[in-house]
Specification:
four-stranded antiparallel β-sheet, 123 residues, globular, 0% helix, mainly beta, seven-stranded mixed β-sheet
Length: 123
């Protein structure tokens, strides 16, 4: 069973950047599709970006394309989310999630979750 730990969140001004990391406990990390979700107060958890096991396929929420980049380092058992040109509406708790098999956007398809990291973007 893989355990996930996010880090890298914080407070940033609008227009700034952050890089989130998600470290996995398992050596078979490379067999998991990895995805970032986020959840703002009072809103449902929403898909942000996903990356296939081999990093050959990526998927992004349409509204975030061009600003966010997902990547992974299987040797370090870590997936990253580079966030640029941040906006106040990006404020949320960001979660990484893992599943065996293909990338899917629905959060209910994921078996393993981190505890989340808060990202706050000020005006």
């Amino acid at each position: 069973q893989v355990q996930l730990v996010e880090s890298g969140g914080g407070l940033v001004e609008a227009g700034g950047s952050l890089r989130l990391s998600c470290a996995a406990s398992e050596r078979t990390f490379g067999t998991y599709a990895m995805t970032w979700f986020r959840q703002a107060p009072g809103k449902e958890r929403e898909f942000v970006a996903a990356l296939s096991r081999s990093a050959g396929n990526t998927d992004y929420a349409d509204s975030l394309k061009g600003r966010f980049t997902i990547s992974r380092d299987n040797a370090k058992n870590t997936v990253y989310l580079q966030m640029n040109s941040l906006k106040p509406e990006d404020t949320a708790v960001y979660y990484c999630a893992a599943r065996r098999g293909i990338v899917l956007r629905g959060h209910r398809n994921y078996d393993y979750w981190g505890q989340g990291t808060q990202v706050t973007v000020s005006t």
